[in-house]
Amino acid sequence: MNEVQKLYLRWHANAVMLYGMKGYGQFCPVALAAEVFAERWTPLIVRELLSGARRFADIHRGVPRISRNLLCQRLDALAHIGIIERRPIANGRGFEYDLTNAGREFGPVIESLGAWGYKWSSRDLRDEHLDPDYLMWVLHRLVRTENLPDRRVVILFQFRQAPKRRYWLVLSRSEIDVCIVDPGFEVDLEVVAELRALADICLGHLSAHDAANQGALTLSGARHFRREFPTWLGSTHYAAAS
User: Fold this and answer.
1) Are 176 and 186 in contact (CB under 8 A)?
2) Which of 35, 41, 145, 223 is deepest in the core (most CB within 10 A)?
3) What are 63-96's pLDDT values in tens digits?
4) What is the CATH number of the domain that holds 53?
């Protein structure tokens, strides 16, 4: 493939700039778009921004296997070519990131990719797909806050495939936090699960009740919390659309 040099597409008022990416040497619009979108990690970074992430740390938590240095490079490149805007945080350190009009128009592309992946690939998960950090980040986004009690609930998660990793989910109707360091609150419920089982619950392929019956999910704590726990877990919106 040819190296794409600095190039402005002046024929469009909202054009983005292709800069320093590996190109296909074609003027085909599919090829031009792929040179921007198909760079490794870029679709996932755009996915996180579309999901509401604005700070570097939140973007990184949604893409935990990318190095911080490489994420910086990708964000710099996306800002340079006009896919995202970067603004200094008021009265703070660092930056906030937001999609430009060009970046937001990737939304339907991301949605179509997700729908295709859900339909054709989500039942064939391999171990490499089961990152516990990402799984917990997804889980905290899927909590059904309307079903939570009117008090804070703290859940400790452990996974049989990663016994040294511990996660605390701090739940309230106003805010959901996931912590990798003990937040110092009393734990109300302990969950020991298979990574695949919890991923399947997030995907809507398995219920918490069935996971418990299969021995893939174990709950310890007060009976009313164990009974209500399945109602707190949501699933990806792709499940409802399938």
Assistant:
1) no
2) 35
3) 999 999 999 999 999 999 999 999 998 887 889 9
4) 1.10.10.10
State yes or no: pLDDT of 5 exceeds 70: no
For the full predicted model, state whether its pTM sits above 0.70.
yes
Span 40-52, mean pLDDT? 97
CA–CA dist 170, 193 (Å, integer): 18
Q: What is the mean pLDDT of residues 140-160?
A: 97
**74 belongs to a structural domain:** yes
HSE value, Cβ hemisphere, 13 Å, CA-based, for 239: 15
**Torsions phi, psi for 102 (to 5 deg):** -65, -40
DSSP labels, 107-171: HHHHHHHHHHHHHHTTTS--GGG--HHHHHHHHHHSB-GGGS-SS-EEEEEEETTEEEEEEEEEE
Say if residue 21's pLDDT is above 80. no
Q: Give the CA distances from residue 35 to residues 94, 107, 194, in Å, rounded to whole numbers and listed in that order.
A: 28, 17, 38
**Residue 205 covered by a domain:** yes
Dihedral pair phi/psi, residue 168, rounded to 5° = -115, 125
Question: Which residues lie closer than 8 Å to 69 by C-beta, 6 or more apart?
Answer: none
